[in-house]
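Q: what sequence does this backbone want?
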């Protein structure tokens, strides 16, 4: 196969030769294309090749390279910049943009900042490392932006966990009732030069049944690791701890009505480690107030972040009257997804540590996110289940992210 060439005025842009599986992916005409890839099969290169070719041949177009975070996104973005170097007339940083001779613009975006993924006139979008949890939060905005322009998007990445955006993209791409989607899967042996001996070595060293081997060499989605949360086994390792004099703690509280559970969850602020929780079913508001006050007092007069919807409002006010440092949290259609996605991201990246508690872990594993065909996202436990531990911890994590310490919040 000869290298591809794109003509822009009198400058010829020469793109490197692709492997057959990469070529099939970049040439796929579907509006949305997902590629679930084993390790080192060239997913980022293929995405960069596709976006560079499009920018070079579509004058005046707007093209987005999206990564899960800015640092990860820069890797692929700089690959695009290298491929387009002969055509670049202006390159700027922060925000990262390339301006080409033909009037096209390539910009770096991140799934971590979904509010910045709303725009006009986006021609094509490449989403790298789309198996990571940041894309769950970003997808509704990406969908809305591209539906306005009928723009095209390709997503590549290693497999995520069951229920994540990438897992759903696989189902959509395999569903004949969704012709706008297509799906590609690359295993380790699809890469030219990869051998059975290489695969056997990985199997021996990682373990045939390990999530790492199945994900990175067989390109399998890992089911049973949580339909919404990821990496739970790795972070659910803490033991309950008594308060240490001089340490700063924070309490997240999820009040309840009589048919549900009340939870107060305490975290070490510096280590972002859960140290204790209290959970009771159907307690009256005055008992929830007493218990939240007790836990906060026990953990060095810890500040309290508490849901103020429903019974939480009066409880929060009474705790303030008692002299507690209280930060009421208003749960809404916008704030709830925000704190859940942040909590999920911190679990996935090992930023937060949870108690080694089987009930708490089982509640997190069962927690679900469902996306309707119009892009509406709904959260909750399965029918008959509970989400009180999830919400109390997510509310506490929101406080930890805002650096709540006794006396002030930033």
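A:
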């Amino acid at each position: 196969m000869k290298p591809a060439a794109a003509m822009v005025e009198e400058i010829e842009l020469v793109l490197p030769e692709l492997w057959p599986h990469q070529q099939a992916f970049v040439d796929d005409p579907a509006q949305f294309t997902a590629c679930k890839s084993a390790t080192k099969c060239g997913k980022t290169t293929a995405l960069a090749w596709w976006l560079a070719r499009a920018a070079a041949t579509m004058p005046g177009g707007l093209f987005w390279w999206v990564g899960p975070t800015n640092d990860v996104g820069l890797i692929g973005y700089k690959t695009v910049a290298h491929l387009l170097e002969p055509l670049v007339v202006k390159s700027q940083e922060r925000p990262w943009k390339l301006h080409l001779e033909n009037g096209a613009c390539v910009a770096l975006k991140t799934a971590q900042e979904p509010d910045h993924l709303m725009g006009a006139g986006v021609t094509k979008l490449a989403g790298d490392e789309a198996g990571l949890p940041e894309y769950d939060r970003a997808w509704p905005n990406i969908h809305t932006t591209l539906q306005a322009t009928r723009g095209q998007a390709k997503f590549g990445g290693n497999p995520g966990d069951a229920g994540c955006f990438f897992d759903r993209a696989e189902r959509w791409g395999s569903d004949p009732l969704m012709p706008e989607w297509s799906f590609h899967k690359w295993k380790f042996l699809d890469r030219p030069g990869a051998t059975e001996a290489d695969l056997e070595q990985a199997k021996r060293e990682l373990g045939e049944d390990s999530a790492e081997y199945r994900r990175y060499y067989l390109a399998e989605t890992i089911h049973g690791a949580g339909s919404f949360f990821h990496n739970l086994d790795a972070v659910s390792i803490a033991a309950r701890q008594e308060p240490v004099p001089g340490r700063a703690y924070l309490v997240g509280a999820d009040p309840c009505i009589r048919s549900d559970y009340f939870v107060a969850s305490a975290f070490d602020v510096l280590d972002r480690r859960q140290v204790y929780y209290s959970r009771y079913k159907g307690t009256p508001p005055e008992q929830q107030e007493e218990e939240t006050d007790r836990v906060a007092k026990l953990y060095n007069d810890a500040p309290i972040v508490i849901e103020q919807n429903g019974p939480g409002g009066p409880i929060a006010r009474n705790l303030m009257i008692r002299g507690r440092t209280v930060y009421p949290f208003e749960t809404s259609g916008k704030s709830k997804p925000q704190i859940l996605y942040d909590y999920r991201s911190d679990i996935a990246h090992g930023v937060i540590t949870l108690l080694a508690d089987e009930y708490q872990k089982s509640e997190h594993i069962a927690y679900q996110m469902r996306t309707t065909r119009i892009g509406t996202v709904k959260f909750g436990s399965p029918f008959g289940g509970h989400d009180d531990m999830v919400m109390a911890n997510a509310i506490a994590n929101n406080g930890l992210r805002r650096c709540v310490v006794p006396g002030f919040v930033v």
